[in-house]
Amino acid sequence: MEQELISKKELLDLTGISYGQLYRWKRKQLIPEEWFIRKSTFTGQETFFPKKMILARVHNIVNMKDDLSLDELAGKLSDNSLFSTIILTTENVLERNIVSEIVLNKFGENPGVGQEYNFDQLLHLFTVDRLLSKGELSLEEAGLLIETLRRKTPKFEGKVYDLFFIRKMGVSSFILALSPAELLFDEGVRLVAKVSLGDLIEQLKGKLT
After folding, report:
1. How far is CA 27 from CA 31, 35, 77, 200, in A?
2. pTM higher than 0.90 for the full model?
């Protein structure tokens, strides 16, 4: 399954930003150089971007640029340590609509009034909530996923990774792999969902700023 891309023209049309803004943000390192992907098309060379990640990043930039200089914004977007210190209570999580009350009560750690969650815990819950809301996994599978994320994601600290959700003969499994990753599966294995954790991190940052 290839990463979904969006062309530069589609990005500008969809977000309403200008060519000048896009490349000014690139120069200021608000958008990583590696997100600018050059590909050959029938009209020549065109620039594409990882669709979900660039849309989330543009959303975050637009929402924060009026309150911060571009240099300050670049530091905030690139420095995950700023988010590693964030602690939200159960009430904060629900007020900001980060995850649903059902997911928080079912999979939160000792959910209750005053319970606190750090960025990693929020990301795990956010991931489960997104897949549940799409109807792509059951509550039982969600429990397996949350345990997988809690046990395995510390090994990927500081790295971008993808989540692969597969089923074979009714048995569900989850695979975490460094991004970009292209996995090949045996016959009979169905890829239910591939999730870019980098994309979800961008979305979660947007809800926390």
Report:
1. 8, 13, 14, 24
2. no
